[in-house]
Amino acid sequence: MRSSGRNSRGSGSGSGGNNYRGAGNRRDEQQQRAGRPRPEERRYDVGGGPQAGPGPKAGPGPKAGPGPKAGPGPKAGPKGGQGGGPKGGPKGGTAKSGAPKGVGGRGRKPNAPARPREYEAQMEERNRARHDKPRVALPKTFGEVEGERLQKVLARAGMGSRRACEELIDQARVEVNGKIVTEQGLRVDPEKDEIKVDGLTVATQSYLFFALNKPAGVVSTMEDPDGRQCLGDYVTNRETRLFHVGRLDTETEGIILLTNHGELAHRLTHPRYGVKKTYLAAIQGPLPRDLGKRLKSGIELEDGYARADHFRVVQNTGKNYLVEVSLHEGRKHIVRRMLAEAGFPVDKLVRTAFGPIALGDQKSGWLRRMTNTEVGMLMREVEL
């Protein structure tokens, strides 16, 4: 009887336990079929709300059954989450998840995406608008000072440093519009005022003056429709247009001036001012002693008499003579025609000076910028 009772109780308890475990397995299978995760597989969004922290449902303890009060409340602590799940949720009712700390709190996530490009463009536009505000026109309390300081104009014209130009003013060597200036800081207009140093006009920066040693075979024009080499080939890539002062024959070498100062160029070529030009001519001798006298007294040409201002023999080697002729006229081929009429055709002709500007040792085909002193001497030559 006892053995049968034990067997019956053991069989009953065993069947009851088997039934309970079987019911739990069936419940899990039903939850999986319904698409709901098991308690230990659930993941919860981390947030600061009162309902953001429910832990997983309590698993079966030694005596606990699946009653309706097994689930934790909204303030469930870590003890309420211990059961069939792997671990209870942390304090505050939140379970550990893959989300980093700080999500839903202050600041951005470390691996958060960058700001939209539209937002960045708006920020850049606002920054530019802040720095590009139009300048506010303040009311004029005092009259605006016009012009530039005299020493600054002199320094820019190449007369030396500003300190050196101030010393020129202290030495009473500078005059503006005919009056000697001894006061520092005088303001002038370089385009309108006439500025002179030691009696020579100071050229402003807006004018350009060049001296070219023209080779033989170059046409004395700035452009040539036939494509021949001309003066314009030596002054390309200039900021302003230049033009030549007077002409030289195609086969004649020597100095020719280029500038953009129209009034100066006009006066340098006008017969009224009589600017002297000097030439070296190679001719064949022997020369009579009175050749210089004949040239100075005048040689009759088809367009009138032509007179030389100066004549001298520079070099003589056998029958080869190198003579220097100076004259103030500027008619076409004037030197060649005069010597040919006197009976001595020219083999080679070079212009060595135009007024006070000498060719010197400047090489053939080289262009140089004239100094301010040379420009001042030219202007004095034509009363500018």
Whole-angstrom Rg: 54 Å
Helix content: 25-40%
How many helices? 8
Distance between the termini: 153 Å
Summed over residues and divided by their number, the pLDDT gives a mean of 75
**SSE topology string:** HHEHHEEEEEEEEHEHEEEEHEEEH
Low-confidence stretches: 1-21, 47-56, 58-62, 64-74, 76-106
Judged by helices, strands and strand pairing, the structural class is alpha+beta
* β-sheet strand percentage: 15-25%
**What overall form do the CA principal axes indicate?**
elongated
Give the helix/strand layout:
Elements: H1 2-33, H2 117-131, E1 148-149, H3 150-156, H4 162-170, E2 174-176, E3 179-180, E4 187-188, E5 195-197, E6 200-201, E7 209-214, E8 243-245, E9 253-259, H5 262-269, E10 277-284, H6 291-297, E11 299-301, E12 304-306, E13 310-317, E14 320-327, H7 334-342, E15 348-354, E16 357-358, E17 367-369, H8 372-381
Parallel strand pairs: 9-15
Antiparallel strand pairs: 1-4, 2-3, 2-5, 5-6, 7-9, 7-17, 8-9, 10-14, 10-15, 11-12, 13-14, 15-16
